[in-house]
Design brief:
Elements: H1 13-26, E1 27-29, E2 38-40, H2 44-62, H3 66-74, H4 76-86, H5 96-112, H6 125-146, H7 153-166, H8 174-192, H9 210-219, H10 222-231, H11 241-252, H12 264-292, E3 303-307, E4 313-317, H13 325-335, H14 349-353, H15 361-377, H16 379-391, H17 399-426, H18 450-466, H19 469-490, H20 495-508, H21 512-523, H22 530-553, E5 558-567, H23 569-578, H24 583-590, H25 600-607, E6 610-616, H26 619-623, H27 629-639, H28 647-663, H29 673-684, H30 691-694, H31 696-719, H32 723-726, H33 733-741, E7 760-762, H34 769-782, H35 786-816, E8 818-819, E9 822-823, E10 834-836, H36 841-849, H37 851-859, E11 863-864, E12 877-879, H38 885-900, E13 915-917, H39 920-923, E14 970-974, E15 979-984, H40 989-1012, H41 1025-1045, H42 1049-1055, H43 1065-1071, H44 1076-1081, H45 1087-1109, H46 1124-1136, H47 1140-1145, H48 1160-1181, E16 1202-1203, E17 1206-1207
Antiparallel strand pairs: 1-2, 3-4, 5-6, 5-15, 7-13, 8-9, 10-12, 11-12, 14-15, 16-17
Helix pairs in contact: 1-2, 1-3, 2-5, 3-6, 4-5, 5-8, 7-8, 8-11, 9-15, 10-15, 11-17, 16-17, 17-19, 18-19, 19-20, 19-22, 21-22, 22-27, 22-28, 23-24, 27-28, 28-31, 29-31, 34-37, 34-38, 35-38, 45-46
């Protein structure tokens, strides 16, 4: 007896006692009455609020589930809450008390039905005790709510929110917003509750199935409420978009949209075919088993010895080893076990989505009608608003909402395509199209915008970089469906749709980074699950197919590539050595001349420049990115599931292997033992493809492909005996090329567009020319490059001799030419330029690549003949004709002097330490202007780092283009041109886990905020005396602050004379007196304008304080998030401008100070004096927070016209 009376210690006894007493006081059935109706307790409303406080302040604050466990054991939802809601009939909508009680019931049911998440980091022993019980309790809640006969619980919830929803969004209070969100979260919770994996539900699962949920939503008008909110999203509703998204996601996920719009007859045929295929597969398995199965004579055990080639004996048991040698070998191979290393389980996308859902006919028709209505009216408003919220990273958008958004976009796009195909199959008579008819593709145009493509590309790259595989799966599904929808538009025959589709495809394929990401996704598959594998292969197949067709139609297709223009060090060193230098020359060209930089940004700019350029797209070259062994392995892993794949999936794998083996002639990538064994088993193995299941056409295609690949492999083995060894291994690109063609790929190490040597400059830009030449000569001497010094001296001497002879000839002609005995005196004409000839090829290379020689050549006056053209090693250098023989001789003397007396520097510095590489911004050439350019340097269309928009593409603004991108870790790869290409570095699992943890913490903060705001305040008609006193006290304090801001001290300051202001001698001379009264007029005082600025700032502060003091359960900040910038700009503009009445009331005496007609200097001095006076006055006033005041421009006084000290009146100015 004592053992049976031991209390249950899962919950504290005092907590259980309090909860049970509150549940008892809530109400019950009366024993005296005969109507068996539920009777509310006297204080039922207060009891419901007390229970809500217990959940809020005990369970949530202490991270426990004790109150929820007690309420589940008391069965409060089924026994009390639903009965209370049934007491509010639909005809009694005017009863305020009933509506308050109903609202309190939903406030209690929302936290009880809130999704339970298992977080290993925060879970305690208490959670493990309560979780199984609460999960089963939530299933019972769902069953009771959607199957309650006495009242429509879901419809009653909508009735509670309907008065708040009917109000315009500008008239809703925080309480109204809270009620709407509360009811939507309740509907979300009901749609989200499902049996957890591994838990057996004791009741009838059909009562909580997806079909029952859809039937309840349709019967109780929940679908109509969802359509109403979705179609008015952005106008009457804003932050409710993510809640509607969750509701749609949880009753549409894993529903096959391809079966939704087919007729009942077609659906029965599809189900019959599926059943036939399953039965045929089972029969094939039985046939293969019966060949080796036991018979009536095999009841006795069998053991045989098999003698191997090496003489060893192997023991095999079972009569199936007696059938044939192949069976014995398979049995021996089956006995070999390999214990793979254990790895931690990973959450897969299919586990998150759940198993596929089968709907009954009634639920299918109801869902079909809802989806049709939603596509017609609510799809564009809802998903356009969601896309904008995701782009601006709104605070109410969680990380899970992004994956749900992409999943639903792909689902609805597929449903729309299926609906269009069903309408075509029904062959409806063509109706005349009205002017206002909506095109079918316009119904989903909200997600076929350039902004959506930008969002898609960004999250494709972000999810892959962060290794967020579930989100990446949904993004790939969405990408595929958008491509298929655009292809449908291309084939529609409508010119407008075809033009829009062409623009969308040009935007989709314009960024080369998108191509690289898709190729990387296909290449790096490891163990992300079948859903990820299916989405990856489907995107690869669709992307390649549509891109190939588009590139054939648009021969001049352009893509934008981003590269880092930095060559390999080895190539630079080789060129430097060939030019007569050392490896240090190449290091200078690679990085910088001076290794120590004052500015890190300049050092980064010198190391590498990020360039964005357009280039012509070559599909054949792009398709080679899908030939590496990693992509082949991805499709091989996908083909391993050939017995479970649909005909479309098998066709997808077939097209890829055909492309590799025959289109690109790289069949050697498939010549590996496991791949050949897979292909053989698909056709001739023990479990081959069944033609009756996959279709005869698909089976014949695979049979022909396998036959041709095996034949090609046999032939290649005869040609390349080395392939016998390579059959065991994966093949690199070079190895596969050699095995295919018999020779190695020839690559050129010389760049097609060589670049000249780095352009250098002097650190001290104030050096004279002689010192500059001495420094460069010193560098050449330190580097033992005297041969280039001698060549420059020789070239200068020859040019000086030639120029001196030409000048002498011109002087003789000038002196000999006379007219009437008078000598004609004039300037000499410009001499012809002298071409500089390099002594040999080595010298020519040094002229192009040696930066120090090039600097010396420019210092002595050498120039390129065509400086506007790109420089090449064959560019011609000249001595310009404007240089005289004297100039050339001076330059030669400077070189000789520096050669015999090299410069010396302090602190042991070398000559090369005085040089540095010119930055990218310094070297950038000015923009070449066209003939029609007006030459305005301030034109907004000046060439920058990137164009404002790509030519020939939709001129739409990227909503996130101005937002700075987050820095990510990059890696560099060398392309075939010898350039380093910037790619995203693959992060390891630890770093990915750290990023995922950071995202999870951020999401938890949002969840805590949302869940803590689920509750609605009690009522507006209830008063609180203490709260009223606090409110009036705060208002009185604000009034005192306002009086202090606009009181008398400001007026007294106007009369004070600012210090430090005196009359100039010129003013005293003109005025004839030294009265200080006139001096005061020269000062422009602005205390009231400064007060106006403080007033605006004070208003902002008061608004912030008011928001902090209010205790609102449902936050309304998110609703006004879109208008925040506009409101702030209006407040700042109103605060910064003083009132006109204040300015007009402030009068000043006319100034007697003389001003010239152009008196700019005197006006400027007066302005400076006025500013100084205001500053001194502020210091003397001793006001607080003067540093925060924004300076306001002083009003300009009209100056009278003055000449020689006399005021001149003009009637024109009146």
């Amino acid at each position: 007896m004592e053992d049976n009376e031991i209390p249950n210690d899962t919950v504290h006894p005092e907590v259980r006692a309090h909860i049970n007493s509150l549940v008892s006081a809530l109400g019950g059935y009366s024993v005296d009455s005969d109507d068996d109706k539920y009777k509310l307790g006297d204080d039922a409303l207060e009891v419901l609020r007390d229970l809500k406080k217990w959940i809020r302040f005990y369970d949530e604050k202490t991270n426990r589930m004790d109150v929820a466990r007690c309420l589940a054991e008391a069965n409060i939802v089924c026994t009390d809450l639903l009965q209370i809601l049934a007491l509010w009939p639909p005809s009694d909508n005017d009863s305020k008390y009933r509506s308050k009680v109903a609202l309190a019931c939903y406030e209690l049911m929302v936290p009880l039905t809130w999704p339970i998440e298992k977080d290993p980091e925060t879970m305690t022993v208490n959670h493990h005790r309560h979780l199984p019980v609460l999960q089963l309790a939530q299933l019972n809640y769902k069953r009771a709510i959607i199957n309650f006969d006495a009242a429509q619980i879901l419809n009653t919830a909508i009735r509670v929110a309907l008065p708040s929803m009917a109000l315009p969004i500008g008239d809703r209070t925080a309480r109204d917003q809270g009620i709407i969100k509360l009811i939507l979260y309740f509907l979300r919770n009901i749609a989200m509750i499902s049996p957890p994996p591994g838990v057996n539900y004791e009741g009838d699962e059909s009562q909580i199935s997806r079909s029952a949920l859809i039937d309840a939503f349709s019967f109780q008008d929940v679908f109509l409420a969802i359509l109403t909110i979705a179609s008015n999203m952005g106008e009457d509703f804003r932050t409710e978009d993510v809640i509607i998204l969750e509701i749609l996601f949880h009753f549409l996920k894993r529903v096959d949209s391809s079966k939704l719009f087919v007729s009942e007859k077609q659906l029965n045929k599809i189900k019959t075919d599926e059943l036939t295929a399953a039965m045929n597969k089972e029969a094939a398995m039985l046939r293969s088993y019966n060949k080796k199965g036991p018979s009536r004579h095999s009841r006795f055990g069998t053991m045989i010895w098999v003698k191997r080639e090496n003489g060893r004996t192997v023991t095999v048991s079972g009569q199936d080893a007696l059938l044939d040698p192949a069976a014995r070998e398979r049995k021996m191979d089956g006995s070999k076990t390999f214990k793979a290393p254990r790895r931690a389980r990973k959450d897969e996308a299919d586990k998150e989505l759940g198993p596929p859902v089968n709907l009954d006919e009634r639920a299918r028709q109801q869902l079909k009608d809802f989806v049709s209505d939603f596509l017609d009216s609510g799809f564009n408003p809802l998903f356009l608003h969601l896309q904008r919220s995701i782009d601006r990273e709104a605070s109410h958008v969680l990380e899970s909402h992004k994956a749900q958004f992409f999943y639903l976009v792909s689902w609805f796009l597929e449903a729309e395509r299926v609906r269009q195909q069903a309408n075509k199959d029904q062959k409806k008579p063509a109706q005349p199209a009205a002017e206002d008819d909506v095109n079918t593709f316009n119904l989903v145009a909200g997600v076929l915008q350039p902004e959506m493509i930008i969002t898609l590309n960004r999250y494709l790259d972000r999810a892959y970089t962060d290794k967020n595989w579930p989100q990446l799966t949904t993004v790939m599904r969405c990408f595929t469906q958008i491509l298929l929808t655009i292809q449908e538009m291309t084939d529609s025959g409508n010119e407008e749709d075809e033009e829009i589709a062409d623009n969308l495809l040009s935007n989709l394929f314009y960024e080369e980074k998108t191509h690289d990401t898709i190729a990387s996704v296909a290449r790096t598959f490891k163990d992300q699950g079948f859903e990820y594998l299916d989405a990856c292969t489907e995107l690869t197949h669709t992307f390649l197919r549509i891109l190939e067709a588009y590139s054939k139609q648009n021969v001049d297709m352009q893509v934008r590539s981003r590269r880092r223009t930095r060559k390999k060090k080895k190539a630079k060193q080789a060129e430097a050595v060939a030019a007569g230098g050392t490896n240090s020359d190449a290091e200078e060209d690679e990085d910088l001349v001076n290794p120590v930089s004052d500015d890190d940004d300049e050092a980064d700019a010198r190391k590498a420049e990020h360039t964005s350029q357009e280039r012509k797209f070559n599909f054949a070259q792009f398709a080679t990115r899908f030939l590496p062994q990693g992509v082949v392995d991805t499709f091989v892993k996908f083909t391993h599931f050939y017995q479970d794949l649909s005909p479309e999936q098998l066709k997808r794998a077939h097209r890829y292997f055909y492309r590799v083996a025959f289109k690109h002639e790289m069949g050697t990538m498939l010549f590996r033992l496991d791949i050949i064994s897979l292909f053989y088993n698909m056709i001739k193995g023990p479990l081959p493809l069944d033609s009756s299941t996959v279709g005869k056409s698909v089976y014949k295609e695979w049979e022909e492909l396998v036959k041709q690949i095996l034949r090609k492999c046999t032939k290649k083995l005869e040609e390349r005996p080395a392939l016998f060894v390579e059959l065991l291994f994966s093949k690199e690109k070079q190895t596969a090329f050699y095995l295919e063609y018999g020779y190695e790929r020839q690559t050129s190490s010389v760049s097609t567009n060589p670049r000249p040597g780095a352009e250098l400059e002097f650190k001290d830009k104030m050096l004279e020319k002689e010192a500059q030449i001495a420094i460069v000569v010193g560098v050449l001497l330190d580097r033992n490059q005297t041969e280039w010094l001698e060549w420059v001296k020789k070239t200068l001497a020859e040019a000086e001799s030639e120029r001196r002879g030409w000048e002498g000839e011109q002087e003789a002609r000038r002196l000999g030419a006379t007219t009437d005995g008078e000598v004609v005196v004039g300037l000499l004409p410009e001499a012809p330029y002298t071409v500089i000839h390099p002594s040999n090829d080595k010298c020519r290379t040094a002229m192009f690549k040696n930066p120090h020689l090039r600097l010396l050549m420019k210092l002595v006056g050498f120039e390129r003949l065509a400086p506007t053209l790109d420089e090449t090693p064959d560019s011609v250098w000249i001595v310009p004709g404007r240089m005289s023989a004297y100039d050339l001789k001076e330059n030669l003397n400077m070189i000789n002097k520096a050669e015999f007396e090299p410069p010396t520097f302090e602190a042991g510095e070398l000559a090369e330490d005085q040089l540095r590489r010119k930055s990218a911004g310094t070297k950038a050439a000015p923009r070449k202007r066209a003939a029609f350019d007006d030459g305005d340097d301030d034109d907004i269309l000046d060439d920058g780092e990137e164009p404002l928009f790509a030519a020939g593409r939709l001129k739409s603004i990227n909503p996130t283009g101005d937002r700075p991108k987050k820095l990510r870790r990059k890696r560099m790869t060398i392309n075939s041109d010898g350039e380093e290409v910037e790619e995203v570095r693959e992060i390891d699992d630890e770093e990915a886990a750290a990023r995922a943890k950071a995202r999870k913490l951020k999401q938890l903060e949002k969840l805590r905020k949302i869940k803590s705001e689920v509750y609605v305040r009690a009522s507006d008609d209830e008063s609180d005396e203490e709260a009223d006193k606090e409110f009036f006290a705060r208002e009185e304090e604000r009034r005192q602050k306002t009086r202090a801001a606009y009181g008398g001290p400001a007026k007294e300051k106007e009369k004070e004379k600012p210090t430090g202001v005196e009359k100039s001698a010129w003013e005293r001379l003109l005025d004839g007196d030294d009265s200080e009264e006139d001096d005061e007029d020269a000062v422009v005082e602005r205390p009231k304008q400064k007060k106006a600025v403080k007033r605006g700032g004070k208003r902002k502060l008061d608004a912030a304080d008011l928001g902090d003091d209010e205790d609102v359960d449902m936050d309304r900040d998110d609703d006004d998030e879109e208008n925040t910038a506009d409101d702030e700009s209006e407040r700042s503009s109103s605060a910064a401008s003083p009132a006109p009445a204040k300015r007009a009331a402030k009068k000043r005496k006319p100034s007697k100070k003389p001003v010239d007609d152009d008196g700019d200097e005197e006006m400027q001095s007066a302005t400076q004096t006025s500013e100084k006076g205001v500053g001194d006055e502020d210091k003397g006033g001793g006001e607080e927070d003067t540093d925060d005041d924004m300076p306001v421009a002083a009003p300009v006084r009209v100056r009278p016209r003055v000449r020689a000290g006399f005021i001149v009146d003009s009637s024109d100015e009146e």
